[in-house]
Amino acid sequence: MCLVTQALVSVSADDVRDVINVTSEEIPDSKISKMIKRAEVTVALETDRQVDSGDCSEAEKEAITVLSAVYAICYLTGGSAVGLSFSVGDQNVAALDDSPPLTVLQAELKRLLAKLKGSTLRRA
């Protein structure tokens, strides 16, 4: 019998900034780290899993990264975000010109969470 182990990975501030194409000058590591922690908690609650952004599966990393990127967009535009509820502000931010639309990120997040929830059910 061959056991396949999944390598664990971590979410970094650069991972989040890469999703929305911004720099550390636009959103510092300290701010992104807080977003990652909030996203970690939300993903854990949504999937009924224990999730650690510093030691997680690739799928969990992707969900945390995308949710953190949504939080970052809300931050840059003066909007707000709590859990999976988002409000984009009305500030026009040139830094977001190269970012994917929020609706694309939200759709990706919804897809990732559904897959994570499904794999939780299969493991039970």
Detailed description of the structure:
- With 124 residues, the chain is mainly alpha-helical.
- The protein has one domain.
- It is 56% helix and 5% strand.
- The chain has four helices and two strands.
- The chain has helices at 13-20, 29-47, 58-77, 102-123, and strands at 80-82, 85-87.
- It has a two-stranded antiparallel sheet.
- Strand 1 and strand 2 (85-87) form a beta hairpin.
- The protein is globular.
- The model has no long low-confidence stretch (mean pLDDT 85).
Helix content: 55-70%
Specify the number of helices: 4
Overall number of structural domains: 1
Which band does the percent of strand residues land in?
under 5%
Give the overall shape: globular
Q: Structural class, please?
A: mainly alpha
Order of helices and strands: HHHEEH
Low-pLDDT residue intervals, each spanning 5 or more residues: none
The average pLDDT score comes to: 85
Tell me how many strands there are.
2
Largest sheet: 2 strands, antiparallel
Radius of gyration: 15 Å
Question: What is the CA–CA distance across the termini?
Answer: 21 Å
Strand order of the largest sheet: 1-2
